[in-house]
């Protein structure tokens, strides 16, 4: 009405095209891809939230979606009412929902806020409540989007423990995330989407490497770009290990931690500089590990690969940390960086509120 003669045009965006795959019963199946690749749309189609224009979706079993923060919750109702309503919508009888109510609230750690309306909840509280309902309905299939990143460190650690339990029980889980460490830790197979197209399906390690190629330098389908446009190094994966060398996505404060990432050199580099930056959930840099403190590095030829490992005592404060590995040359010119390639959740029995909890010794002497 304000601009009746203005030119009007539009482009068609197909969120998903010719995506075909099968998830086996009891499989922990990962879905990865860059922002806008169609991951969340895919889960919403599977959950019946979005209709599809063509093709067919076959779901064999009761399905419980945990896809988007606040979906299915009424902000003007209390947690008590929302739990009963949502559990009933997900397939429980009202009697079963009431019987499991205490377990839901206890898992979410919201006993003090049961009769508070959800519009007064924080985003983290809503996430805890939604996930708690989703895992209590005994669904054969669970759809989980990356909204778990909103929860605090303690709750994320509980969620990862719940994943382990459901995996042992043979539940089928579709898990959307940007965290390749979690994909390699939990998933049996994974799928890679790019611009609505299915690029690859395979073992988690292969998909994590392919995701790095798509995300950090080799084009939509992993094809190498022209020589002049190729990255000088490719950071293919990152992860954390505990003191036993096991890959972990969560770790208790006080335990030893080794942060690792793999680098593939596209050309010869003399004495590269390796760094690994830890950021907390509000994007503050907490610390940066660097190879410059450890003397001169080896020289690497084109095609060489190396796994970089930084070990440290984990006295980080309870939070979720993202890991950004980077490589520079001897002149400190950045050759490659992979922002937030992996994450680590640090949990502690007691939080001081500080970003690190350095061990101290206390001595008291009366004057």
* Major sheet: 6 strands, mixed
Low-confidence stretches: 218-228
The helix/strand series, from N terminus to C terminus, equals EHEHHHHEHEHEEHEEEEEEEEEE
Instruction: Write down how many β-strands occur, each being a DSSP E stretch of 2 or more residues.
Output: 16
- Spatial strand arrangement across the major sheet: 2-3-4-1-5-6
Using only CA atoms, what is the Rg? 23 Å
User: On the 0-100 scale, what is the average pLDDT?
Assistant: 86
Number of helices: 8
State the end-to-end CA separation. Answer: 82 Å
Shape: globular
Q: Determine the strand fraction and express it as a percent band.
A: 25-35%
Query: Which structural class fits the helix and strand makeup?
Result: alpha/beta
Looking at this protein, list some descriptive labels.
single chain, 367 residues, alpha/beta, 6-stranded mixed beta sheet, globular
Q: How does this model look, in words?
A:
The protein is α/β, with parallel strands linked by helices and 367 residues long. It is built from 8 helices and 16 strands. The protein has helices at residues 39-47, 79-89, 94-99, 101-108, 123-136, 153-168, 180-186, 204-215; strands at residues 28-33, 63-66, 141-144, 172-176, 189-194, 197-202, 233-241, 247-248, 250-252, 256-265, 273-279, 285-290, 305-313, 319-328, 334-337, 342-347. The strands form 3 sheets. Strands 2-3-4-1-5-6 form a 6-stranded mixed β-sheet, with helices on both faces. Strands 9, 11, 12, 14, 15 and 16 form a 6-stranded mixed β-sheet that branches. Strands 8-7-10-13 form a 4-stranded antiparallel β-sheet. Helix 4 (101-108) packs across helix 5. The protein is globular and about 65 Å long. The protein starts with 27 loop residues before the first strand and ends in a 20-residue tail after the last strand. The model is unreliable at 218-228 (pLDDT under 50).
């Amino acid at each position: 009405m304000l601009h009746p003669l203005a030119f009007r045009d539009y482009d068609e965006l197909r969120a998903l095209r010719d995506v075909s795959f099968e998830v086996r019963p009891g499989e922990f199946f990962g879905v990865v891809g860059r922002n806008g690749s169609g991951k969340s749309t895919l889960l919403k189609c599977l959950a019946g939230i979005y209709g599809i224009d063509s093709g067919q979706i076959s779901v064999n079993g009761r399905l419980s979606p945990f896809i988007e923060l606040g979906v299915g919750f009424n902000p003007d109702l209390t947690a008590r009412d929302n739990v009963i309503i949502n559990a009933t919508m997900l397939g429980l009888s009202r009697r079963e929902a009431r019987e499991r109510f205490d377990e839901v609230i206890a898992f979410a750690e919201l006993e003090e806020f049961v009769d508070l309306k959800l519009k007064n909840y924080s985003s983290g509280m809503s996430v805890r409540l939604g996930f708690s309902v989703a895992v209590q309905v005994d669904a054969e299939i669970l759809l989980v989007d990356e909204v778990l990143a909103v929860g605090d460190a303690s709750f994320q650690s509980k969620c990862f423990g719940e994943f382990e339990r459901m995996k042992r029980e043979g539940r089928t889980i579709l898990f959307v995330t940007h965290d390749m460490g979690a994909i390699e830790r939990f998933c049996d197979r994974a799928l890679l989407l790019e611009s609505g197209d299915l690029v690859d399906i395979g073992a988690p390690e292969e998909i994590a490497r392919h995701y790095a190629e798509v995300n950090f330098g080799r084009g939509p389908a992993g094809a190498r770009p022209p020589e002049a446009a190729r990255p000088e190094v490719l950071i293919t994966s990152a992860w954390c290990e505990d003191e036993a060398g096991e890959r972990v996505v969560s770790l208790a404060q006080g335990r030893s931690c080794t942060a690792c990432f793999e680098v593939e050199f596209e050309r010869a580099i003399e004495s590269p500089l390796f760094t690994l930056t830890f950021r907390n959930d509000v994007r503050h840099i907490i610390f940066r590990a660097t190879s410059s403190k450890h003397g001169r590095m080896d020289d690497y030829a084109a095609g060489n690969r190396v796994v970089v490992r930084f070990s440290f005592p984990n006295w980080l404060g309870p939070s979720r940390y993202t890991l950004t590995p980077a490589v520079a040359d001897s002149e400190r010119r950045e050759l490659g960086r992979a922002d937030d390639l992996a994450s680590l959740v640090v949990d502690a029995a007691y939080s001081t509120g500080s970003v690190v909890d350095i061990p101290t010794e206390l001595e008291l002497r009366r004057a």
